[in-house]
């Protein structure tokens, strides 16, 4: 069963690997990624899906 829960600090590495797999390693060069650089996720809006 898949559970959706608040993202924890230890989820960040897995999230980054997933984004690299989906959007390619060059995703960090995109303007949208540059805008996110150095920012934290919005409080209450960062989730993880786990089994």
Q: In terms of topology, how is this protein built?
A:
Blueprint: E1 3-6, H1 12-23, H2 31-36, E2 47-50
State the distance separating the first and last CA atoms.
6 Å
How many distinct domains? Answer: 1
Overall shape: it is: globular
Share in β-strands = 15-25%
- Average pLDDT number: 90
Radius of gyration: 12 Å
- Structural class of the secondary elements? alpha+beta
Enumerate how many helices there are, as a single number.
Answer: 2
- Please list the strands of the largest sheet in the order they lie side by side: 1-2
Give the tally of β-strands.
2
Give unreliable regions as ranges: none
What is the ordering of alpha helices and beta strands? EHHE
Biggest sheet features: 2 strands, antiparallel
Helix percentage: 25-40%
Could you please describe the fold and organization of this structure?
This protein has one domain (about 5-50). By secondary structure, it is α+β, with helices and mostly antiparallel strands. The model has no long low-confidence stretch (mean pLDDT about 90). The chain is globular and about 35 Å long. The longest helix is centred in the middle third of the chain and has 12 residues, at about 10-25. Strands 1-2 form a two-stranded antiparallel sheet. The protein has helices at about 10-25, 30-35, and strands at about 5, 45-50.
């Amino acid at each position: 069963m898949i559970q959706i829960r608040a993202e924890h600090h230890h989820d960040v590495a897995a999230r980054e690997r997933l984004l690299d797999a989906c959007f390619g390693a060059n995703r960090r060069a995109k303007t949208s990624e540059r805008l996110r650089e150095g920012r934290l996720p919005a409080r209450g809006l960062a989730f993880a899906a786990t089994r």
